[in-house]
Design a protein that fits this description.
The protein is mainly alpha-helical. The protein has one domain (2-333). It has 15 helices and four strands. It has helices at 2-25, 27-38, 44-54, 57-70, 74-78, 82-101, 106-114, 124-154, 169-174, 179-182, 185-199, 221-255, 257-270, 281-297, 303-322; strands spanning 119-121, 205-206, 213-215, 327-328. The strands form two sheets. It has a two-stranded parallel sheet with strand order 1-3. α13 runs antiparallel to α14. It is globular and about 65 Å long. 40% of the residues are buried.
C-alpha cells in the first residue's frame, strides 16, 4: 500500500502543477474556463464529459491512471476501452482472490521471521502465493500505465521530445528474450558482471550470519527458481511500465531530464522495504536512477529496462535457490 500511496500523491499533484503553468501562459483561457465551469451540467455523465474530457485533459489522464492503479481496468473503462478494462480487472481479481485463499505453513514462516530477517521461508505454497500476489500488484502498475498512455493518445500528448512508449504488452513480455535488447551496452554490461559474480565463489559464503539464506528443502529448489522467474516477469513489466513509462516520463516533462529521473528514482526506492529478497530504499533508488537514465537514453522505450529488470532478479534468485542449504548469499539484498 505504501507503493500505491506514493504514486497516488505524486500523480494527484501533476495536473495541479500543469494547470498552474497553463494559467500563467493564458489568463484569457482561464476566464473562459471559469465561465464554463459555472454552467455545471445536470447529469453525472455530463459532469465527467465537461470537466474531465472537454476542459481539462491533464486531469482526465490523472483520473484514468489513478483509477486503474486502485482498480485495474477502471481507467480503461473511462477511456471507453471496455474489453481491455474487463481483461485487466478479471486478471487482477483472479490473482488477488487466489492469493488470499492460499494457506502456508505458519510455524515455518514465523520461525523465519523470528530470525531477524536472516532467514527467508520458501516452500511450494509460499512461492505460489507470492507469485499470485506479485501478479496482482503488477497488474495495478501496468493497468495504470496503459490508461495513462491511452489518455495521452486521445489528448494527442503521447509524442514530443518525451514520447510515451507504444510497445504492446506482448512486446514487453518477450523483451527479456529479444536478442536486440542484449546488444545494448547498458543492458549487457550489468548482466555480464552479475553473471560472472554469481558463478564465482565470492557470491556465496558458508554459514555466514551476515547474509540471508532460505529455509528451503532440496526438492523445492526447482519450483522456487521457476516460480521466481514467473514472478519477476510480471514485476519487470509492471514496475518498468509504471515507474519509467508513466512517472519517469511525466516527471521529465515537468522538471527536465535529470531532475525527473532523480524524483522518479526516489519514488521507486520508496516502493522497496528491504524485507525478504527486495533491496532497501537506498539501493532501489540507485537502481531506479540507472533504469530511468536508460529509459531516457533509449528513446523512452521500455523493452531494455524490462529485459535488464527480469534477468537481474532471476539470476540472483536462481543463485540463492541453488545454494540455499550450504551457503548464504549476499546477493539476496539486491533484487528489486
Amino acid at each position: 500500500m505504501r507503493r500505491l500511496a506514493c504514486a497516488l500523491c505524486l500523480w494527484l499533484t501533476l495536473p495541479v502543477c500543469q494547470g498552474v503553468a497553463a494559467a500563467e501562459e493564458s489568463s484569457e483561457s482561464d476566464e473562459e474556463f471559469v465561465e464554463e465551469e459555472q454552467a455545471a451540467p445536470e447529469t453525472f455523465s455530463g459532469f465527467v464529459q465537461h470537466y474531465f474530457v472537454e476542459d481539462n485533459p491533464d486531469t482526465n489522464r490523472a483520473v484514468a491512471s489513478i483509477a486503474s492503479l486502485l482498480l485495474p481496468g477502471a481507467g480503461q473503462l473511462i477511456n471507453q476501452e471496455y474489453l481491455k478494462g474487463l481483461t485487466h480487472v478479471s486478471f487482477f481479481a483472479a490473482n488477488e482472490l487466489a492469493y488470499r485463499s492460499y494457506e502456508i505453513n505458519e510455524d515455518r514462516r514465523n520461525y523465519a521471521e523470528s530470525r531477524d530477517d536472516q532467514y527467508i521461508y520458501a516452500s511450494d505454497d509460499s512461492v505460489r502465493r507470492n507469485l499470485l500476489g506479485s501478479w496482482a500488484l503488477s497488474t495495478r502498475f501496468y493497468s495504470s500505465f496503459d490508461a495513462y498512455r491511452a489518455s495521452s493518445v486521445i489528448m494527442k500528448r503521447a509524442g514530443g521530445d518525451t514520447p510515451i512508449s507504444q510497445e504492446s504488452f506482448s512486446e514487453l513480455a518477450l523483451a527479456p528474450f529479444t536478442p536486440r535488447h542484449f546488444t545494448r551496452p547498458l543492458v549487457f554490461t550489468p548482466l555480464f558482471l552479475l553473471g560472472a559474480y554469481s558463478l564465482g565463489r565470492g557470491s556465496a559464503h558458508r554459514q555466514d550470519d551476515d547474509f540471508k539464506r532460505f529455509i528451503l528443502d532440496d526438492e523445492e529448489k526447482n519450483n522456487v527458481a521457476i516460480f521466481g522467474a514467473m514472478e519477476y516477469e510480471g514485476v519487470a513489466i509492471g514496475e518498468e511500465a509504471f515507474f519509467r513509462g508513466l512517472l519517469n516520463t511525466e516527471l521529465i516533462r515537468a522538471t527536465g531530464v535529470y531532475p525527473g529521473i532523480f524524483f522518479s528514482s526516489i519514488l521507486f526506492g520508496f516502493a522497496h522495504s528491504g524485507k525478504g529478497l527486495t533491496a532497501n530504499a537506498s539501493i532501489a533508488s540507485l537502481y531506479g536512477f540507472y533504469l530511468g537514465y536508460m529509459h531516457h537514453n533509449y528513446d523512452y522505450q521500455l523493452g531494455p529496462g524490462v529485459a535488464l529488470h527480469f534477468w537481474w532478479n532471476t539470476i540472483i534468485h536462481a543463485s540463492i535457490a541453488s545454494r540455499s542449504r550450504e551457503y548464504t548469499v549476499p546477493l539476496a539484498y539486491f533484487t528489486f
